[in-house]
Amino acid sequence: MNFEQRLQETLERRISEGAFRELRLHPGLFDFCSNDYLGMAAMEFKIPKKNGGSTGSRLLTGNTAEALALEEYLAGFFKSEAALLFNSGYVANTGLLSCIAKKNDLIVYDELCHASLRDGIRLSNARNFSFAHNEVFDLKQKIQRAGCEGQIFIVTESVFSMDGDIAPLKEIFEVAEQLNARVIVDEAHAVGVWGEQGRGLAQDFANRKELLARIVTFGKAIGSHGAAIIGSELLKNYLINFSRPFIYTTALPPVILEEIKIRFQKMETMDEERSRLFKNVEFFKEQLVASKLRHLKSNTAIQCVIIPGNHEVKRWSRYMHEKGYDVRPILSPTIPEGSERLRFCIHSFNCFEQIQNLFVELANME
User: Fold this and answer.
1) What b-and-e string marks burial along 335-349, b requiring 16 or more CB atoms within 10 Å of the CB?
2) Contact, 246 vs 84, CB < 8 A?
3) What CATH architecture does domain 24-41+270-365 belong to?
4) Which one-letter DSSP state was computed for residue 239?
5) Contact at 8 Å (CB) between 277 and 38?
6) Which string of b and e fits 20-35 if b means at least 16 CB within 10 Å?
7) Do 199 and 191 meet the contact criterion of CB atoms below 8 Å apart?
8) What is the distance of C-alpha 92 from the center of its chain?
9) Is the pTM higher than 0.85?
10) Angstrom distance (rounded) from CA 18 to CA 15
């Protein structure tokens, strides 16, 4: 078997499993899929004219005044010592976790953590274990049983991207305090939506010494692209020196950095949109319970209907597209086999009528 045949055979196996991924456009549909929770992606902002590219990495010619200004703004907004920009949430997570833990350290992470967190953990030299999803007792037990001569790190998302539920941060920080652990929180789906002025759920723990880092992203509620790690000045300097994804990457263009700052300043003022979003979430949940569809319990903008089987959940998704609703399937192996689902993202710009009609179409599929 030659190389091309091997690739083809692997793809055909994925097709037979109903897990084949392909890039498609779905214009003109009611949006129940995107991470644009506040509708900011469609907003236009007046951006001062800037040169095209950054021309290099931050340690060469890419360290622009716009990058420094955005980091200073983010540190102030999140009431932290420092912020360090990365080109995406994936790059931030791998850049942090690949270099922060050493051989004698221990990383314990929620079993439903995003792939970017898992990949960063794999790149580190530390021992690592997962703990049962949102189960603090299991977290504590895993750490105590493992034993650790070095530093212990606890890694979690605040709002989980695939299930939509919220981490028990208060209890996690209590365990961290008891066991001298440091906590890393991915706030990708919380920033812009949760907390005072959209500061996220981990903001309540900003003054805790156990909080090592928050990962905030700009491609979801902010409607742009990129990410930042929020933490101490010491952590920032360490990452500048040892995070390979930071060191060896061309920096984001100045015009993008300027736009991100303007978007954050706008997001601070969007309490009305946040309120409307949560009203839509509550209405969606009411319709979901009434529908009797099998679903996951969630109080966030991420809601899931369980449709086991890749082929079956894709059939439901195709039907919803035909009826004008952008609803995407989440397939195994991204999630465990048997838990395949339609994943709904609710937005401030959705309306009750859209949600009601969506459930009419779902009922027609049963």
Assistant:
1) beeebbbbbbbbbbb
2) yes
3) Alpha-Beta Complex (3.90)
4) H
5) yes
6) eeeeeeeeeebbbbeb
7) yes
8) 11
9) yes
10) 5
Quick check: 366 pLDDT over 90? no
Domain boundaries, the chain: 24-41+270-365, 65-267
Domain 65-267 = CATH 3.40.640.10: yes
Cis before 333? omega within 30: yes
Quick check: do 24-41+270-365 and 65-267 share a fold? no
- Quick one: pLDDT at residue 46? 84
Distance, in Å, from the CA atom of 85 to the CA atom of 252, rounded to the nearest integer, reads 9
Helix (H) or strand (E) holding 30: strand 30-31
- CA 226 distance to own-chain centroid: 12
- Per-residue DSSP letter, 41: G
| Strand, helix or coil for residue 315 | helix
Q: Which two tokens stand for residue 1?
A: 């078997």
The number of angstroms, rounded, from the C-alpha of 203 to the middle of its chain's C-alpha atoms is: 16
pLDDT at 68 (0 to 100): 98
Catalytic positions, written as ranges? 35, 114, 157, 161, 186, 189, 220
Q: How many residues does the chain have?
A: 366
**Residue position matching structure tokens 């221990």:** 106
Q: How many Å apart are CA 195 and CA 327, to the nearest integer?
A: 27
CA–CA dist 275, 194 (Å, integer): 10
- Residue 188's Cβ-count burial label (10 Å; 0-12, 13-18, 19+) is buried
What span, in angstroms and rounded, lies between the C-alpha atoms of 154 and 109? 6
- What value does the mean pLDDT take over residues 155-180? 98
**240 vs 225: CA distance, rounded Å:** 20
Distances in Å between the Cα of 20 and the Cα atoms of 83, 166, 205, 321 are 38, 30, 41, 18
- Structure tokens of 237? 């300097």
